[in-house]
Amino acid sequence: MSVAEGPGHPAGAETDASVRDGLYTLGIEMTGAKRGHATGIVVLRGGVIMGGDSFFYYTGSYSQSRGKWRGEMIVHQHTEAPGLNLVFGGREVTCGFTGTYSEGIADIDGTALVGSYSIPFRARLTLKVPG
Questions:
Q1: Cα 118 from Cα 30, distance rounded (Å)
Q2: Strands 22-30 and 105-114
Q3: CA-to-CA distance for 119 and 34, rounded, in angstroms?
Q4: Following DSSP, what letter does each residue of 46-96 receive, concatenated?
Q5: Which pLDDT tens digit goes with each residue over 10-62?
Q6: In-domain check, residue 117
Q7: Full domain range(s) for residue 109
């Protein structure tokens, strides 16, 4: 079921929901030539993105209209990971995304530029603490 489906939201229906300011959990799955996954937290506030996980922090911006949103982030490594092969390891990574938002859930599809690789990813943000 897509984010827009469910009671009061038939498949394919657009919603007027706005991205709510607050603290979100984040789950990311990367596909393509390089594969990986990550979980972390993100704060969305007035068009600004800030967050992180065990090894990286994220900063960026977003805009929204009628239940859809888009944005860009830069990912920086903050902690070394000896013995681990991190997809984004040691690089500043630029990401762009688009997606939908409804009832505290934001789903996105995006692309991360990692060196000479373009890595597609999907992510879900779930609102935990409205702000």
A1: 10
A2: unpaired
A3: 7
A4: TTEEEEE-SSEEEEEEEEEETTEEEEEEEEEE-S--TT---TTTTS-EEEE
A5: 444 445 678 999 999 999 999 877 788 889 999 999 999 999 999 999 999 99
A6: yes
A7: 22-73+88-130
